[in-house]
Amino acid sequence: MPTVNVYNMEGKACGTVELSEKIFAAEINNAAVHSVVRAYLLNQRQGTQSTLTRSEVRGGGKKPWRQKGTGRARQGSIRSPQWTHGGIALGPKPRSYRVSINKKLKQVALFSALTSKVVSDELIVIDNIALDSYKTKNMINFLKAINVEGKAMIVTADVNNYVVGSAANIPGVITAPVNTINVYDILKYDKMVISKDALAKLEEVYA
Question: What is the C-alpha to C-alpha distance for residues 104 and 206, in angstroms, rounded to an integer?
């Protein structure tokens, strides 16, 4: 079983914790990770883009000039696609980009992403993430104490409004309850800071 240090909010080591081998020492499956991340990004798309075809553009009902004898190319409408302000040929229309991924593949990708964090030494376990006020400065000091710079994801057991509010104004830092984490966010952020009770909750569900 992989073992990592547990830190307090002052950045001092206060013990160790054994991680579940099933979750944090899984075989990294890059194909599964790719499929799940691709599906996640596609499912974020609204698919509401829409262009007007020549039949939907206002005007253009009258033939601009007679068919023959002018020396110019024949034209039937000033709303044909080749005209400025004309309709769009083969443009996008509202559609669904939704891709479904089966539950087992999602789990394989999640375990692969979490394992990669342990392998890269990017998982930081905190004894207890506790703030008693909405104070960005307190969150910045906490992240400095545990040597977290740049992009970071803070994972708590439940929604903690003080943690969410204190981190909201820090660029590159997000917060998430443990039951909402996804493969894309785990890989996107350089460090994953997780509370000990959130870790226990994660292992309770999957291990």
Answer: 11
Contact criterion met (CB below 8 Å) for 207 and 23: yes
Q: Give the strand pairing for 191-195 and 173-177.
A: unpaired
Nearest to residue 131, comparing CAs of 109, 161, 91, 172?
A: 161
Residue type for position 74: R
The DSSP symbol for 178 reads G
DSSP state of 58: S
* pTM for this predicted structure: 0.84
pLDDT band at 117 (very low <50, low <70, confident <90, very high): very high
| Exposure string for 102-122, b = 16+ CB within 10 A, e = fewer | eeebbbbbbbbbbbbbbeeeb
Total residue count of the chain as it appears in this document: 207
- Residue 128 has what DSSP assignment? -
pLDDT band (50, 70, 90) for residue 1: confident
Distances in Å between the alpha carbon of 196 and those of 4, 7, 52, 91, 155? 11, 10, 54, 51, 10
d(CA 166, CA 197): 20
